[in-house]
Amino acid sequence: MELGSKIFCVYRQKGYMDFRSTKTIKNILGNGICLCASLILFSCVNDNEEDLVPLSNTPEGTITFQTTVRPIFENACSECHSNPPRNGAPQPLVTLEEIRFNVENRNLLGRINNLSSPMPPSGLLPENTRALIEQWVDQGFINQ
Description:
The chain is 50% helix and 0% strand. The chain is mostly helical. The chain folds into two domains: 3-42, no CATH class; 49-138, no CATH class. Helix 1 (3-14) crosses helix 2 (22-42) and helix 3 (65-76) crosses helix 6.
């Protein structure tokens, strides 16, 4: 006897429910399992303290290439986007000029925010890290 049938029989004997078929119980159990799995799957994030980039040595609110953006690209992108590029990467992302060119001409910000084909390929950078890069771009690609 299946689990759904056992539950149905016990509930029916005790007078708690009067379902017409065990399919209803199976649907309830199946939907409950799907709901729980969805909550677990979609509530996970990859942000943690190690992913945070400190804003040290910068004036309040100013993001610079040397102190903030360069370390992000060194840690997240240099495995492929070094000079020369490796692992099939089309261009290096090492200098301010290379990164600026790719932001302005090759949709770099779109790639680091792309859910279906993220850069880096291992998964999107944490949201706060991507926001720092976007803020740096909005502030005019400040070097130091």
